[in-house]
Amino acid sequence: MKGLGRWWRSRHLERERARFSDRDWERAWRRLPLLAGLEPLAVERLKELALLFLRAKTLEPVQGLRVTAEMELTLALQACLPVLELGLDWYRGWYAVILYPDEFVPEHEVMGEDGVVWTEREARSGEAWEQGPVILSWADVDAGRRRDGYNVVIHEMAHKLDLRDGVANGCPPPHAGMSASEWKRAFSRAYADLCRRVDAGEETEMDPYAAESPAEFFAVASEAFFEIPARLAEVYPDVSRQLAHFYRQDPLARLRDGSVSRVCHKRIVEETRKLDVDHEPLRDADQDLKARQR
Predict the structure, then answer these.
(1) Alpha-carbon gap, residue 280 to 37, rounded angstroms
(2) Per DSSP, which regions of 17-155 are E strands?
(3) Strand pairing of 107-111 and 117-121?
(4) Residues 73-108: pLDDT tens digits?
(5) For a designed S-S bond to 165, which of 7, 23, 114, 173 qualifies (C-beta 3.0 to 4.6 A apart)?
(6) pTM
(7) Which residue ranges form the domains of the chain, and what is each CATH number?
């Protein structure tokens, strides 16, 4: 059965790979400085995950947005970076990415503490729905070309990871060997500190949107972990360490020399287009609780 699974996997990869040229890969890669420093095998695995992501998820452009091959790869590479060492199984249970040209204005019914219900309309750059699609603004996806701590794709994917155990609380399912108490201690202290600073009107190293809730703090911290890891490690070192344990990655180390991945990527494109690295599923659980929105 395992051999049959590999055969199907190989067939899927061949079909997806045929849709993209070397130029598509090169142009998409150049748009994403947060991929700097990846070693050759990691580059291959990320590219394979991106292809499998595009095979598993339907991209649905709306409002006249035209999606090019380069745009597909730009989105998929960002989406798969958080699960590079976890596997695509962590994104099971939802099947579509809806792409708007720019910010969108969804309507949500909200009930206040007094029981009064009203319709909320607020511009969004991204949303992640319960067992449903991830909704993104392409203008904000494209902003991933700047390593400034803002990455809507990673933000919404972090919400999906957070919801794997059915609760959106900033505590995704821990791996074996991780301490849930240490995670909660690190994140609760950092969240309390950020909320205090935001309430005091202080400038913060992280996006102040993280003070909205523990779930938003985790998502924003994930953005910082992959985009501006040095800044996160300086202000909240315990959070940075916990995220390194969870994502099983060290962006702080690899981003010290971004030239490494550019050289490796160019060599890989020239030498081979085969991406045959297997990823063992870590979890079969698939429970989303409610929409998380940016």
Answers:
(1) 24
(2) 58-61, 96-100, 107-111, 117-121, 126-128, 134-137
(3) antiparallel
(4) 999 999 999 999 999 999 999 999 999 999 876 655
(5) 173
(6) 0.81
(7) 2-281 (3.40.390.10)
